[in-house]
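Page 37, continued from 36.
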């Protein structure tokens, strides 16, 4: 097996089954590969929970399993290549006799549907994004040798699917919470609405109930995810209701940190800013993908925001939220991007000094409007521009890290450093799981899931080094 494939769980061991599962009854054994974004991870955890409740046992390696489930990403070409690699590796094991079957689920299955079976006929079953609730029936069919129906695709629901009774594969102390499904944005480069459907808000009471369930299971950091977080509630209540949701989440006992991801610049009201600034649980960290700043590029992307509005919003956020850390993403080489427009983006990044930023080259998606735009940028130019922008951002990030030396920060401990004594890996409020840097912490009495007050004593590129300065809690 390739070490790059995230066969889950690997470390830590398989978590306990959701309430209601009979641990003595085993229908069959399976391994699971989860790819893509945190929203897809929540889908994976829901399918894992359903399989566990139905009597299927999760194992660590395909060699121990009867079948494999690959929950795929289909967002851009690089993600599809990773998904195909995982599928092909599982199919090779099937042909070798190590697996009885392979189930492919998620966004790639939803996007390609029957074409995926034509291209890879050895796949036993396909489960679309909204067919995930039927994964146990699919597993039953596979082990029962039933082949007359090899796929389950459901229309996008008007009400988001439940994400309760998940078998979580994140560490016990943090979890992702999906507050809505789908997206009403029609950004010209993006195929997500084709795969995930229109925006559908999960009602406030359901989100809060899930948050309480997760807190009761030991979650200290709750990471809020959606395709468009600030749009939350618009379809269900007639107006955005993120403010009301956050006020309810503030009341959930057991949560220490609430982290907001995927915030679109629209619908970011002064009231929302005040709620974030005044919260005891919402950390001053905001993930707001901007993609570009030149007005012509923003129009071609159909982002429905302008540079002046974005700069005004960023100014408000910086002035009202103390110690704010901003994460964003940008695309280089979007069709029609000129040197002048790219240089405007570089200057903007240098001026704004985002603490965290990712840069991606434009990915041509055949079923999106951007694919039909004129003046596509050569690959080598896209790559060169990405390197230039990342170099600017790297300098900003390293300088910010250097300024943290001497500062006192709370660090949530994620794991021990293998082979080291009293050395741990954690994250501060400034670091979202899997996408940002880490904090190495030295000190006695620490454990996974503890929050450790630390003095930052050094920086190491994107990471920090801290020494325990108080009692962990």
């Amino acid at each position: 097996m390739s070490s790059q494939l995230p066969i889950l769980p690997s470390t830590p061991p398989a978590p306990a089954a959701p309430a209601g599962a009979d641990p003595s009854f085993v229908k069959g054994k399976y391994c699971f590969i989860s790819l893509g974004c945190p929203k897809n991870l929540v889908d994976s955890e829901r399918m894992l929970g359903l399989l566990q409740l139905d009597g299927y046992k999760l194992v660590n390696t395909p060699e121990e399993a009867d079948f494999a489930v690959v929950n795929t990403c289909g967002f851009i070409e690089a993600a599809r290549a990773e998904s195909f690699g995982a599928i092909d590796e599982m199919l090779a094991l099937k042909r070798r006799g190590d697996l009885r079957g392979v189930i492919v689920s998620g966004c790639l299955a939803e996007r390609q549907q029957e074409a995926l079976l034509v291209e890879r006929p050895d796949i036993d079953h396909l489960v679309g994004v909204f067919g995930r609730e039927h994964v146990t029936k699919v597993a039953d069919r596979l082990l029962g040798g039933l082949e007359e129906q090899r796929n389950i695709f459901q229309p996008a629901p008007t009400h988001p699917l439940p994400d309760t009774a998940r078998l979580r594969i994140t560490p016990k102390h943090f979890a992702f919470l999906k507050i809505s499904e789908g997206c009403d944005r029609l950004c010209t480069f993006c195929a997500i609405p084709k795969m995930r459907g229109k925006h559908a808000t999960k009602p406030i009471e359901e989100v809060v109930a899930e948050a309480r369930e997760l807190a009761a299971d030991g979650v200290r950091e709750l990471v809020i995810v959606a395709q468009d977080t600030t749009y939350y509630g618009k379809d269900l209540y007639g107006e955005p209701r993120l403010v009301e949701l956050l006020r309810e989440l503030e009341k959930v006992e057991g949560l220490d940190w609430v982290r907001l991801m995927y915030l679109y610049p629209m619908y970011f009201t002064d009231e929302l800013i005040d709620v974030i600034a005044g919260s005891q649980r919402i950390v001053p960290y905001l993930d707001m993908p901007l993609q570009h700043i030149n007005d012509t590029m923003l129009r071609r992307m159909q982002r429905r925001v302008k540079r002046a509005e974005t700069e005004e919003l960023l100014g408000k956020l910086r002035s009202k939220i103390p110690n704010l850390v901003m994460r964003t993403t940008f695309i280089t080489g979007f069709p029609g991007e000129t040197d002048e427009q790219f240089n405007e983006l570089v200057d903007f990044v240098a001026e704004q000094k985002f603490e965290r930023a990712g840069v991606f080259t434009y990915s041509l998606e055949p079923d999106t409007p951007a694919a039909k735009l004129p003046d596509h940028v050569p690959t080598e130019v896209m790559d060169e521009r990405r390197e230039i922008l990342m170099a600017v951002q790297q300098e900003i990030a390293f300088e910010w890290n250097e300024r943290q030396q001497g500062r006192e920060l709370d660090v949530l401990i994620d794991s021990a450093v293998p082979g080291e004594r009293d050395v741990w890996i954690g994250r501060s409020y400034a670091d979202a799981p899997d996408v940002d840097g880490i904090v190495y912490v030295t000190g006695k009495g620490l454990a996974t899931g503890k929050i450790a007050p630390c003095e930052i004593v050094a920086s190491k590129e994107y990471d920090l080094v801290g020494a325990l300065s108080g009692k962990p809690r």
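The mean pLDDT is 93. Flag for discussion at group meeting. The chain has three domains: 28-152, 174-403, 405-468.
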